[in-house]
Structures are given as C-alpha cells and as structure tokens.
Amino acid sequence: MKVWIFFLLCLAGNAMAAPTEEAVVEELLIAEEPIAEEPEVGANPVQVEIEEFDEAIDIFEEEQAFADNPCLDHHCKKGKVCEVDEDNTPMCVCQDPSSCPASEGEFEHVCGTNNVTYESSCHFSATKCALEGTKKGHKLHLDYTGPCKYIDACLDPELSEFPLRMRDWLKNVLVTLYERDVDNNLLTEKQKLRVKKIFENEKRLTAGEHSLDLLAHDFEKNYNMYIFPVHWQFGQLDQHPVDGYLTHSELSPLRAPLIPMEHCTTRFFEECDADNDKYIALEEWSNCFGIKEQDVDKDLIV
Ligand SMILES: *[C@@H]1O[C@H](CO)[C@@H](O)[C@H](O)[C@H]1NC(C)=O
Ligand SMILES: [Ca+2]
Ligand SMILES: [Ca+2]
C-alpha cells in the first residue's frame, strides 16, 4: 500500500511540476529579449564603446544563425536528433548514444524488454533507433525504470489483488488532484464535476491502508465511484495518438515506474490485452478493472 501512495505523490508531483517548467522556459525567453535591444533611440552610435559594439554584432550574428536554423522548430521523436542536409532541410536522424548526457545515478538507468540495463532513457532510445526496421528493434521496448533486476513471478492470487489496489489508487489520485486543484487546472471543468461527485460522496472509502477484503467490498458497494477513475487513467495514457488503444509506449509512463515495486504489473497488463493484438483497447482496459461492459463509455474520457 505504501508503494501506491508514494507513486501517487510522484504522479501528482509531476502534474504539478509541468506548468512550472513551462513558466521557467517562458522566463528564460523573456530574459533573453533585452540582449537584442538596440541602443536607445537618439543615442549617438559613435558614443557606443567599440567593444560593446563588437559584442552587439556577435550577438546579432548568433541570433541570426539561431533564427535561420531550420532545426529550431523541427521536432524529432525520442532517440532522434535534428540535422540539416546539403539543402539546409531539417531531418531527424538517430542520436549517437554516446552524445546522451551521462546519467547521474542508478535511478536514471532503465531496463529494456531484452533485460539489458541502459544508462538512461536517452541511451535506450538512441539504441532502439539504430535498430529501427529490424525485428530486434521492433521487439525492444523500455520495460521499467531502474537497472534490470530479478522480479518474482506473479502468482494467480497476487494477480487478482492488483486491480483492487490499482482502482483504489486511481480514485485517490483523482481526489487528490481535485483537492489540490485550486487554479492549477490539473483537471478540466468536466472532469472536476465528475470527481466532485466522488469527493463529496459520504460513502467514499478515504485513502489509507485498507485490507484487500475491504477494497473488494467497497468495489462492490461503491462500484459507481470507480467507473470514472478507470476511464480517466485510460484517457491520460491514450495520447499518441488518441485512438482508443494503448500501445506499449503509451502504457509506459504507468508501467515503467510500477514494475520494480509491483511484481504483477507486467502480467496484469499482458493479460489485459485479451485478444493478444499488442494493444489494450478501452474495452479490454475497463474489463481488467472490473468495469461492466455496459458502463464502458468513450464519452467519459473527453
Ligand atoms: C534480468 O537480469 C537480472 C540482472 O542481471 C537478473 O537477475 C534476472 O534474473 C534477469 N531476468 C531474466 C528474466 O532473465
Ligand atoms: Ca493510442
Ligand atoms: Ca488488444
């Protein structure tokens, strides 16, 4: 249980950090502007000291180069970097793993589905890119965060516990986001309305350490409170593209940090893909979490 709470805080922390990061970027952009400032109107340019003038030209040229760089707003996916060809056309090429920043510790290491430890997710993506088009590359995914380690086999009774705790956790994540969401806009207005109903329901099982029996009992009794959280998590993951299916990489933000702590994660999501087509459809997802077929509703996600 502790593990889930820790994970919740990480997730909530990430959600909170996102707007701050953007703010930092914006600040940087604003801070850069004065560099381009021309001498004040009316000031005699001759009076500008020579050195300063040279510097101004340097900066100007640098900025020109910066603005002319077609790679500047050419986005490449992970594992690739932008380079220009002879015609100054930007293109994405595989990144050399050795150009990845050195990792600052084991916590940055990742384990691939080939059970090989990579120094960081950058090293992993660059390596995977080099294998693009090969069978090996197709099968290689990031499995989990941290160095590869021995993971206990997940036994049947343990597997059935997984959705109990995960559902409870999802509900608590949403309620926590709702409580903290004063003006952070972590949730849309529509989502807030849905979570409000859960939050204000007196019968809600509050966050804490609960026995599996109690979790199972609560799911039966307060089944309706779990429908939205299960849909919400699916929508959070189904982003690239938004198509009602989760690929391995879409599922990764949830799976990767969880696997080292919860040894049934891999088996759970494997079995969740009931038709074995490598995608988890909304129907499959909902079914894994015990949501009845008639309650699966695409409109709950948007
Ligand atoms: C993966 O690698 C780890 C560490 O090298 C090892 O302990 C573990 O047994 C390996 N797992 C499998 C499934 O081979
Ligand atoms: Ca998708
Ligand atoms: Ca499937």
Automatic annotation (TrEMBL):
GO cellular component assignments: basement membrane; extracellular space
Cysteines paired by S-S bonds: C71-C82, C76-C92, C94-C129, C100-C122, C111-C148, C154-C264, C272-C288
Protein name as it appears in the record: SPARC
Gene name of the encoded protein: sparc
InterPro entries attached to this UniProt entry: EF-hand-dom_pair, EF_Hand_1_Ca_BS, Fol_N, Follistatin/Osteonectin_EGF, Kazal_dom, Kazal_dom_sf, Osteonectin_CS, SPARC/Testican_Ca-bd-dom
Coiled coil feature spans: none
Record domain Kazal-like: where: 93-150
Free-text function comment from the UniProt entry: Appears to regulate cell growth through interactions with the extracellular matrix and cytokines. Binds calcium and copper, several types of collagen, albumin, thrombospondin, PDGF and cell membranes. There are two calcium binding sites; an acidic domain that binds 5 to 8 Ca(2+) with a low affinity and an EF-hand loop that binds a Ca(2+) ion with a high affinity.
GO MF annotations in UniProt: calcium ion binding; collagen binding; extracellular matrix binding
One family name in Pfam for this protein: Kazal_1
Locations listed in the record: Secreted, Extracellular space, Extracellular matrix, Basement membrane
CDD domains assigned: EFh_SPARC_SPARC, FSL_SPARC
Signal peptide: 1-17
Family (UniProt): Belongs to the SPARC family.
Transmembrane segments: none
Keywords: Basement membrane, Calcium, Copper, Disulfide bond, Extracellular matrix, Glycoprotein, Metal-binding, Secreted, Signal
